[in-house]
Amino acid sequence: GHTGDVTCLALSHDGKMLASGANDMTCRLWMAATGQCTAVLRGHTGGDGSGAQCIAWCPGGKRLAGGHGAEVCVWSVPTGKVAAALAGHGANVLGVAWCGADGGRRLASCGWDNTVKVWDTRNNKCMATLSGHTELVRSIAWSPDGRRLASASSDCTLRIWDTTSTAAGGNSMGPAAAGLGLGGAGAAAAELLASGSQDNTIRLWDTASRRCVRVLSGHDHYVAALAFSSCGAFLASASLDQSLRLWD
């Protein structure tokens, strides 16, 4: 289907649809069970010709967001049309994340301009620009309650932002991180933050104490992506060692 390199994937929350973004300037929707392409989403050219660098499903599955060049494109999935183009970043967007706690009212984005932005998708306005990282911000993830936002940067830090006040300050923590995810810590009731790094390891952080509580070793190369299961009991990791791992 795609005529350029596939750069990002996202599975819908119900597991029925898979979205893919590529350097052919399109995003495609696929039936996960059959592999059938059901829609080709266009409308973005990507300022540098790089196509989609990240995509994410809205919690309700009706919208899809993707970073193209320095803009965030939001599509209406039922119509396949562009619903909004969010401009504000000064360089390429590398990550997008919907807030599940408010049903996708807020959308966060990050990128090469060293910032994180929080958008109100009701009016497509930027609610806050979170500055503090000194190098590009690679990935972002919301806490389950939507009160905090985590960001991972090439400046070798993770930051936790208080989004209740849309303050521009954050708590700095961690080693270099390339991908991250937030999830519940099961019976402990505390939240865990997972970070993957170029040192081939995954670190689990207690966000309350800002301490590393566990280091997961096993990959032989840079850990590029992480995701918690919906129940928070499992963590999936993807690495440049060409392997996927599931952690209990």
Structure description:
With 248 residues, the protein is mainly β. Helices cover 0% and strands 52% of the residues. It is built from no helices and 23 strands. The protein has strands at 6-11, 17-22, 27-31, 37-41, 52-57, 63-68, 71-76, 81-87, 93-98, 106-111, 116-120, 125-130, 137-142, 148-153, 158-162, 170-173, 179-184, 191-196, 202-206, 211-216, 223-228, 235-239, 244-247. It is globular.
Which secondary structure elements does this structure contain, and how are they paired or packed?
Elements: E1 6-11, E2 17-22, E3 27-31, E4 37-41, E5 52-57, E6 63-68, E7 71-76, E8 81-87, E9 93-98, E10 106-111, E11 116-120, E12 125-130, E13 137-142, E14 148-153, E15 158-162, E16 170-173, E17 179-184, E18 191-196, E19 202-206, E20 211-216, E21 223-228, E22 235-239, E23 244-247
Antiparallel strand pairs: 1-2, 2-3, 3-4, 5-6, 6-7, 7-8, 9-10, 10-11, 11-12, 13-14, 14-15, 15-16, 17-18, 18-19, 19-20, 21-22, 22-23
Number of alpha- plus pi-helical segments: 0
Mean pLDDT: 85
Q: State the low-pLDDT regions, or none.
A: 173-178, 181-190
What level of helicity do the residues show? under 10%
Task: Tell me about the largest β-sheet.
Answer: 4 strands, antiparallel
Strand order of the largest sheet: 1-2-3-4
Encode the helix/strand succession as letters: EEEEEEEEEEEEEEEEEEEEEEE
Alpha-carbon distance between the two ends = 35 Å
Alpha-carbon Rg, integer: 17 Å
Shape: globular
- Percentage of β-strand residues: over 45%
Total DSSP E strands: 23
